[in-house]
Amino acid sequence: MTKALWKIGILVITLLILALFAFSYAEEKSEQQTISDSSAKFLQLLKQRGFNPKILNDKTTVDLKAWPKDSATGAVVRQLSGLKAGLAVETLPGVRFISLKEAKRLDTRHQKTGLFLVDIDYVPRELPEALKYFKYTLRKDGTLTDANEEPILALVTSEVYLIEKKTTEKLSNLIIPEAYAANPFPWRCYSFTPWAVYHSGFHRWYDARTWADTYGPDGAGGCSSASPHTRIDYIYTRAAVGGGGDSDHCFNCESEYSRDTWDVGYFWPAHGVPVTTHHAVYADGTFSFSRTSHLTW
Predict the structure, then answer these.
(1) How far apart are CA 235 and CA 223, in angstroms?
(2) 236-255 confidence digits (pLDDT tens)
(3) Mean pLDDT for the stretch of residues 128-144
(4) Could you tell me if 262 and 163 are in contact, meaning their C-beta atoms sit under 8 angstroms apart?
(5) Cβ contact 213:219 at 8 Å
(6) What's the CA gap between 223 and 77, in Å, rounded?
(7) Banded pLDDT at 106 (limits 50, 70, 90)
C-alpha cells in the first residue's frame, strides 16, 4: 500500500509541474502575441509616414541617403539651448567647449586626450552619468582616461527640442493602441546626443555612439534638466564608424542607444581619421521626428 501511495504522489506532483509549465507557456505566448500585434500596427504606422520598414532590421544594410534626415511631422518643434537644454557649463570641470570647425581641426596625433563639447553652450544632462557608466575619468586639467587609465579623446554634441504645438493635419487613420501613448507624462521634449571617441593608447580604436532620450514637461510646463523621462511609442538609433554600424530600436520606451567601433590595432602608427554617422527616429501618436548628423576630428 505504501509503495502504491508513493507512486500516486509522484504522479500527482508530475501532473502539477506539467500544468504549471503549460500555464506559464500559455501566458508568455499571449503576452508575446499582444506585443507582436501592437508592434505590427506601429510598423504600419511608420510605413504610412514614409519610413522604410527595413530600418527595423538590424541585419539589413541600409543606405543612409534613403532615410529622412531632418524631418518633423505632426507638430512644430524648437531647438533649445542653455539651461533649458541641459546642465550648467560648470557641471563638469575640465570639459572644453569648441565649434564644429575647431573640432575638424583637431589633430589626433597631438591631441590625444580631452572631452570636447561641440557647438553647444550646456552640458548634456546624461553626460555625467554616462562618464561614470563607462568608467571614464575627467580631470580638472582636461585629461580624459578610460577604465584602464589610457588616454581618450571624446567629441560630444547634443540637440534638445521642445514640442511646441500640434499641427492641424488629420491623421486619424494613423491611430495606434492607447497602450503606446506617452507615459507616465505627456511628451514635451527630446534629445539627440552623438559621441565620437578616439582611444589613443597602445590599443587604438574609434568609437561612435548615438543616444536618444524623451522627456515630459518640467514644473513650468517647458523643458529643462528637471524634465522627467517619459516613454513614447517608438525610438530608433544608429551609430556607424568605419563599417556597417549598429542599430537598435524599442517600443514604449524613454531612451535608446547604439554603439559602433572601428579597431585600428595595437601600436599601428598610420591610419585614416573616420567620420562618424549618427541617426535617430522618434515617434508617438501623430508626431514623428528624425535626425542625422556627423562628427569627425
Answers:
(1) 19
(2) 999 999 777 899 999 999 99
(3) 94
(4) no
(5) no
(6) 12
(7) confident
Rg over alpha carbons for the chain, rounded to the nearest Å, is 24
- Summarize the confidence of residues 86-99 as an average pLDDT: 95
- Contact assessment for residue 210 and residue 237, using Cβ atoms and an 8 Å cutoff: yes
Q: How far apart are CA 251 and CA 30, in angstroms?
A: 18
Q: What is the pLDDT of residues 6-61, one digit of tens each?
A: 666 666 666 666 665 555 544 444 434 333 444 455 556 555 555 544 444 444 34
SS3 assignment for the chain: CHHHHHHHHHHHHHHHHHHHHHHHHHHHHHHHHHHHHHHHHHHHHHHHCCCCHHHHCCCCCCCHHHCCCEEEECEEEEEECHHHCCECHHHCCCCEEECHHHHHCCCCCCCCCEEEEECCCCECCCHHHHHHHCCCEECCCCCEECCCCCEEEEEECCEEEEEEEECCCCCHHHCCCHHHCCECCCCCEEEEEEEEEEEECCEEEEEEEEEEEEECCCCCCCCCCCCCECEEEEEEEEEECCCCCEEEEEEEECEEEEEEEEEEEECCCCCCCCEEEEEEEEEECCEEEEEEEEEEC
User: Rounded CA gap, 184 and 187, in Å?
Assistant: 9
C-alpha distances (whole Å) from 227 to each of 11, 83, 132, 252, 253 are: 57, 12, 21, 18, 16
Per-residue cell: 285? 501618436
Contact in structure between 258 and 281 (CB atoms under 8 Å): no
